[in-house]
Amino acid sequence: MYKIPGHHHISMLTKDAKINNHFYEKILGLRRVKKTVNQDDPSMYHLFYGDLTGSAGTELSFFEMPMAGRTVRGTNAITKIGLLVPSLESLTYWKKRFEEFDVLHDEITTYAGRAALPFEDSEGLRLVLLNNNGEETPDFWEPWEDSTVDSAHRILGMGTTEITVRYLERTAKTLKELFGYVEVSGSEKEAIFQSVEEQAFGEILVHQQEGPSEKPGRGSIHHLAIRVKNEEELRYWDNAVKERGFATSGIIDRYYFHSLYFRDSNGILFEIATDGPGFTRDSSVEDLGKALDLPAFLEERRAEIEAKLKPID
Prior knowledge:
Elements (H helix, E strand, L loop, with lengths): L6 E8 L2 H11 L3 E8 L2 E10 L8 E6 L12 E9 L2 H13 L8 E3 L2 E7 L5 E6 L25 E9 L2 H11 L3 E5 L3 E5 L8 E6 L12 E8 L2 H13 L8 E2 L3 E7 L5 E9 L24 H7 L5
Parallel strand pairs: 1-4, 5-8, 9-12, 13-16
Antiparallel strand pairs: 1-13, 2-3, 3-4, 5-9, 6-7, 7-8, 10-11, 11-12, 14-15, 15-16
């Protein structure tokens, strides 16, 4: 059986790509590594932020939906994104930075067993900075040296991701029995699972909550993608997910990676995505995120697509 080596990316909805770009690149100091479009609906932007090259496990992805209403929070949804920072001192740095930029945030607290600083972006998306405390991160994560954030305190990549569900045990079984996650702490209403033991970069916190399901809108999380190395592993997981009784999308070529999608028994949308080819497939490292990049099958429609998109920069 293959093992899941951590998170790949996480995808959200934004109402305004320009405001979104300012927040994640100028305030959070992430690099915009790809400016492209939703391949299923090329009338909308699809933006990716991450480290120097948008390495798997560092990617925050946003679909622009100008007509998106507000999110009505509820259960059966992915509800919070953890981002790793180097140290406890980093949390103090970020608290001051959030005060400077008028970012909604809480006091430094504890979350998933780590010192933490919860905050929200301009559309109410819930995130939390987590003290990585010098622990291991994937060796291919590379810092972006042009970040607006002090080098000692830059965001490293994704950490604990929170999923809120009506029936905790259903999602727990999917993570443990299908994907081999290990439960490292748990109670009646909450449990933490790790794809790589003792490492936060593949950690999922599942919280049980009754009530109506979340109504998605701006600032909501669409899906969580978990990593596999290559297409051979992806085919294995496609079969394994189907054998578990879930329907899958089948393997889809997303140009920068291959992936498949399925919903678990609580309706949570998971993606399983390959590490490569990566965002340098159609761009040099130096030019990542600058121009509008389109997958080959959309290139002949470039003029039509560009005419419908509002400039971000």
